[in-house]
Amino acid sequence: MKITNVRACQPIAENSPGDWRTSLGQTLVAVDTDVGVTGYGVGGGGAAGTHVVETVLRDLLLGESPEPVEALWERMYAATLAFGRKGIAVMAVSGVDLALWDLRGKLAGEPVAKLLGGAVGEPIPTYGTFWSDLTPEMVGEHTAFKLHVEHRGDGDRIDGIVRAVEQAWALLGPETGLMLDAWMRWDEATTLAVAEAVEPLGVGWIEEPLSPDDLDGYARIVERCAIPIAGGEHEFTAAAFRPLIERGLHAVLQPDVCWCGGMTELVKIYEMANAAGVRVCPHRGCEVWGLHAIAALDQQPLAESGRPWMTWVGGQPAVEAGSITLSDRPGFGVEIDEANLPGV
Ligand SMILES: [Mg+2]
User: Fold this and answer.
1) CA 229 / ligand 1 centre spacing (Å)
2) Rounded CA gap, 164 and 182, in Å?
3) How do residues 37-49 score in pLDDT, each as one tens digit?
4) Is 283 a catalytic residue?
5) Which of 7, 207, 314, 341 is the most core-located residue (most Cβ within 10 A)?
6) Which residues contact 336 (CB under 8 A, 6 or more apart)?
7) Which of 247, 287, 176 minimizes the C-alpha distance to 266?
8) pLDDT of residue 156
9) Is the pLDDT of residue 35 over 70?
10) What is the 3-state secondary structure (H, E, C) of the chain?
11) Which pLDDT belongs to residue 151?
12) Ligand 1: centre distance to CA 323 (Å)
C-alpha cells in the first residue's frame, strides 16, 4: 500500500472568530492511498500550515507506506526541524499524523480508541469553556465550567477577576466544577493574589497564568499556590512536555492533539504523565481527535468543549447533559463532505 497524495486546505465556516484562530486556524488534511481509502486529520496554521503540508510533508510521504506512522512522524519532524520544532510547522505535522491515524483505524476497521487499547461507548464527562459570563440556562450542560478571565478586571484587575469568579460560583453552586483560564496573560504576583482570593471557592485549576516559556516562573508559583496549575495548551511535542512533568510544573497537562504533534505525540505525553501521576486533560477534548485518546488513555476523563464553528468536521458526537460518547465507527469516525467545504 502506498500514499498517493497528501492534501490540505483551510475551510472557514460562518461564525469563525476574527482572530488568529481563523487567519492561522484549523486546516483539513487528507492522505490518499492506492487502495482507495483516505484518512482525514485536522492541523493548524492556516495557509502557512497548508503550505508546509503541500510542500515538505507531501514530498516526504508520496509513495511511502502509510502504516509505520511513528516512523513517518520522526521523518516529518526531522524534515521540518530547521524551521519547525514548535508552532505552525508542528501544527502541520499534527494534521498529517492524525490523518495517518485515521487511515490506520479505517484499514483495521476499528475506532482509534480501540487501537490505543481502550473502548468506545462509555459516556465521558465534559466541561464547557466560556469567555462571557455564565447564564442560568448553561447550568447542567456540562459537569464543569471554565471561565476565561485574562481580559477581566481592567484597572482594578484582581478585584474584577475575583468578582467574575464569585458570580460564576453563585450560579453554579458547589456541585459543579469551576476552573479559570488566564491564557498566558498574568504575572506571578497576579496569579498568587487571585489564587489566594478564590481558594475558598474550590476552583479546580488555574490555567496558563504565565508564558509557556517561563518554566522558572511556573516552578516558583507551584511552590506557593494552593490551586492546581494547568498548562501545555500552547506547547509542542512530547519532548517539550517532559520537563513540565519532571519539574512538576503543572498538575494538569492540556496538550492539543491538532497542534502538539498529533496522536503519535499525545500517546507519548499520556504515557509519561500517567507514569508520573500527572493528570492529562486535552485541549478541546470533545473534538474527536483528542476524545479517542481520552477514552483509551485517561485516568480521570474530562473532555473540554470544542470549537462550535468547525461544522465541516461531520460525524462528531454531541455533548448531552454533561457527557459525550464516541461511536464505534472506524478511524476517528468523522464524515468530511469534500465537495462542500465552507470557504474552500
Ligand atoms: Mg486554555
Assistant:
1) 12
2) 13
3) 999 999 999 999 9
4) yes
5) 207
6) 28, 30, 40, 312, 313, 314
7) 287
8) 74
9) yes
10) CCEEEEEEECCCCCCCCCCHHHHCCCEEEEEEECCCCEEEEEECCHHHHHHHHHHHHHHHHCCCCCCCHHHHHHHHHHHCCCCCCCCHHHHHHHHHHHHHHHHHHHHHCCEHHHHCCCCCCCCEEEEEEECCCCCHHHCCCCCEEEEECCCCCCCCHHHHHHHHHHHHHHHHCCCCEEEEECCCCCCHHHHHHHHHHHHHHCCCCEECCCCCCCHHHHHHHHHHCCCCEEECCCCCCHHHHHHHHHCCCCCEECCCCCCCCCHHHHHHHHHHHHHHCCEECCCCCCCHHHHHHHHHHCCCCCEECCCCCCCCCECCCCCECCEECCCCCCECCCECCHHHCCCC
11) 80
12) 20
Asked whether the beta carbons of 69 and 93 are under 8 A apart, the reply is no
pLDDT level of residue 153 (50, 70, 90 thresholds): low
Task: Please tell me the distance between residue 254's alpha carbon and the centre of ligand 1 in angstroms.
Answer: 8
User: How far does the centroid of ligand 1 lie from the alpha carbon of residue 307, in Å?
Assistant: 12
* Superfamily holding 115-328: Enolase-like C-terminal domain (3.20.20.120)
User: Which amino acid makes up residue 270?
Assistant: Y
**Quick one: pLDDT at residue 183?**
97
Cα atoms found within 13 Å of the Cα of residue 42, Cβ hemisphere only: 24
Here the cell at position 40 is 482525514
- Which of 123, 115, 124 is closest to 301 using CA atoms? 124
Is pLDDT above 90 for 12? yes
pTM: 0.97
Contacts of 295 (CB under 8 A, 6+ apart): 113, 118, 119, 120, 122, 124, 301, 326
Active-site option among 234, 250, 283, 292: 283
Residue 155 has pLDDT above 80, yes or no: no
The pLDDT tens digits for 61-80 are 999 999 999 999 999 999 99
- Structural domain boundaries in the chain: 3-109, 115-328
Confidence check: pLDDT of 206 > 80: yes
